[in-house]
Amino acid sequence: MISGRRLLDGLDPLLDRVLCVAGAVLFSQAPEFFQQYLQRLGGHLDEARRQLEQFQQAAAGAGLTVAQLIARTSASADQAVAPLGAAIRRTVTRVDTLQAAHDALLHASAWTRPLVFLSHWDGAIAHATWAVYRPAVPTTLEGLVYALAGMLVFLAAYHGGLRRIWARQATRPAARP
User: Fold this and answer.
1) Do the beta carbons of residue 122 and residue 105 sit within 8 Å?
2) Element holding 113 (H helix, E strand)
3) What is the pLDDT of residues 89-141, one digit of tens each?
4) Is the separation of the CB atoms in 113 and 105 below 8 Å?
5) Which residue in 16, 46, 73, 133 could disulfide with 85, CB within 3.0 to 4.6 Å?
């Protein structure tokens, strides 16, 4: 009968390679996800700008700035008009937030992109991106860097801890009923 330790030693080279491939494939998808997220973010930004442009045109037509339009509508005694000021203010804020996130992601390096992504995270956009995400084979230097990082992380996790835990469990005597 083969002991658990001998079985683990026999499977070690195969498991090592499987984890290398899994890490490479998994991590190499990050640049593609960021790219698809950036496209979706750009679509949200375009739509928010379009809405803001309509408010700017309405303000200009009344001889006002957007800030003046917000102040007037917010101060209106008419309950149908007063909430419009807050809606315009939210649109201005949304354009600024989306623009900052878009610019930051667009200009981030391969090394900083994950941190920039997390610092400008929009959960609704990320969820919508994930819902339609399609994996791709990255053919860029960034994809290669992420694939190599994935290999290293998975191998380090395996050789640094998981392998030892499995080896200890494989050499333990079986519990008797």
Assistant:
1) no
2) helix 113-119
3) 999 999 999 999 999 999 999 889 999 999 999 999 999 999 999 888 878 88
4) yes
5) 73
